[in-house]
Amino acid sequence: MRADRDVDVVVIGGGQAGLSTAWALARQGFDPGSGFVVLDADDAPGGAWQHRWPSLTLATTHRVHDLPGLPFEQPEATTPAVASVPAYFAEYERHFDLPVHRPVRVRAVHRAAGDRFRVETDAGDWTARAIVNATGTWTRPFVPRYPGQELFRGRQLHTVDYRDPAEFAGRHVVVVGGGASATQLLGEISTVASTTWVTRRPPVWREGPFDEDVGREVVAKVEAAVREGRSPGSVVGLTGLLVSTPYIREGRARGVFARLPMFDRLTEDGVAWDSGDGDEGRFQPADAILWATGFRAAVQHLAPLRLRAPGGGIRMDGTQVAGEPRVHLVGYGPSASTIGANRAGQAAARALRRLLRDQGERPR
Ligand code: FAD
């Protein structure tokens, strides 16, 4: 593999979104190595999957779609995703001889002379005619601010810090958040600890997986948000829907998913409600608070490009940034799923091939 530092396309991130884009760029005639490179901050293949908690298996995920061109030989449903998905990604990189450089963390992307971008990293600079950003969200956990957070003497952790329910055995844990991670972690922690579940909105349970109509409706809502430059929300945030799997039904039968509204503040040893419909004066002592409160897009390194819209997000037109056809975001907004990332990677590669050809530049 040639280590060219001036390429047509730099792909930032080597998870599902980055690898599917790399595969598609090669199919569009960009030369792996001299035409495009993938810069990935992790030490090993696997994207965020290599960092998830060990009890997350393919049986408890929604569904991990194959990367394009090489089927995922699905292991036993009980194999931890933290092992099986990274092994598949590693094989994928080898199979297609993808030019992935790691660990390389992109610090900032700048506009540079000659219609190029300068990609500043902890391993030196690259220059490129176009950028595909595929950095996911895992590295930007979001914890909302509540009064008293600094007073609480127990443990506060986010989904990214969670490892094993055994850490909480015999304790009381408050789980905050209404999404899939919150319900999964609550389900398993409640087998060894007492729990309280708090969410901002009452959950709406949906029996069985999302069908295609619901899926399309959700994607359309996220698309509309990013077209207007709003921050892309989560599926639950937009629809309020939670999928009731057999695992969840078992927890509901145990009474684990009896939900309380969001507390108003933390104290030294628990959480308190000052308002609400009948919850005023409620206090729950707690040993730990698990913030399963989601993520933000990891796009800080794009700040020098000034892409942020007044709505707090980046205004998008398909996979490209509106008004900037040389910058694509894959795995962002409507494509933040394994299947969405596959499709977006291919759309971005096609668009870049057309753009560079239209500019009279042939892919190398
Ligand atoms: P990631 O997998 O996060 O990869 C991003 C890569 O970018 C990483 O390798 C990281 O090192 C790199 N990176 C980040 N910043 C930089 C930087 N500055 N410089 C260089 N590299 C950088 N989706 C599904 O479709 N099915 C599921 O079952 C499912 N389950 C999920 C379960 C959990 C707990 C969570 C949190 C999400 C789940 N999702 C699921 C969503 C899914 O994980 C993502 O949509 C998809 O896998 C993300 O892929 P990605 O490539 O965008 O991001």
From TrEMBL:
GO terms for molecular function: flavin adenine dinucleotide binding; monooxygenase activity. This is Predicted flavoprotein CzcO associated with the cation diffusion facilitator CzcD. InterPro entries: Auxin_biosynth/cation_transpt (IPR050982), FAD/NAD-bd_sf (IPR036188). Keywords: Oxidoreductase. The keyword Oxidoreductase applies. The keyword ATP-binding does not apply. It comes from Blastococcus tunisiensis. SUPFAM superfamilies: FAD/NAD(P)-binding domain. Transmembrane segments: none annotated.
